[in-house]
């Protein structure tokens, strides 16, 4: 029986890398997929040419293209401003608020209304560490937890196993110097320990859909020298064998579910 999945993200492009294959697989099975994006992504890194224009409009258009690639039925923007990553928190733009300054309960009420209206069985959100620690991702995690309290919806938090990521970063660090001030020690507490992950999804033939969604976010592969260290740009350059290895599985932590045994099949949406 088909159901509905609401997938809540902080920025345009967050849906592609960690959840794109799973969402494409669920859409192909006949489930209704609704994207909800909290911010406009206007502070994302991009080329000077793109940043001098309307980057927010560009990124939301890219999200629409990604949604088509993944088979999503609808994209809903909550209309908050990107809070940016790093030590500095920018002031609010005229007439708008940075996402992290909007109270969790206020945003959760918005999302809960969407969950109820859609009759969604599953909400997908972000893990407790915000992946690599982006403030907007952490805020989305807190919102997702509150929506679960308000609606009782099943909540699965998109993540990745921490241990292999750290091993890969250490290995790379032995053979090359990281650029743009990247410090791999900052990832010591990123994402989720393997023992806490409840779902490991092999996305199979939907890897191509995921890659199409990633390519839709062209702005996030630009930026001259800065783009060399961007995750999206880097993984899109991987050869096919490495692409299947790096991108071919997606990981979730279902809230309120024991992580043992690990569930390897696609989770049931309507059950």
What overall form do the CA principal axes indicate?
globular
Separation, N- and C-terminal Cα atoms: 8 Å
Strand line-up in the sheet with most strands: 3-2-1-4-5-7-6
Largest sheet entry: 7 strands, mixed
| Integer tally of domains | 1
The helix tally amounts to: 9
* Helix proportion: 25-40%
Q: Quick check: average pLDDT?
A: 88
Number of strands: 7
Q: Main traits of this protein?
A:
alpha/beta, 39% helix, seven-stranded mixed beta sheet, 15% strand, Rossmann fold, GlcNAc_PI_deacetylase-related, globular, 7 strands, zinc, LmbE-like_dom_sf, PIG-L family deacetylase, 271 residues, single chain
Fold and architecture overview:
The chain is α/β, with parallel strands linked by helices and 271 residues long. It has a single domain, classed as Rossmann fold (3-Layer(aba) Sandwich). 39% of the residues lie in helices and 15% in strands. It has helices at 14-28, 48-51, 55-70, 104-118, 135-151, 162-175, 207-216, 231-236, 240-247, and strands at residues 4-9, 32-39, 74-80, 122-126, 154-159, 199-202, 249-254. A seven-stranded mixed beta sheet has the order 3-2-1-4-5-7-6, with helices on both faces. The chain is globular and about 50 Å long. The N and C termini lie close together (8 Å). It holds the Pfam family PIG-L. Keywords: Zinc.
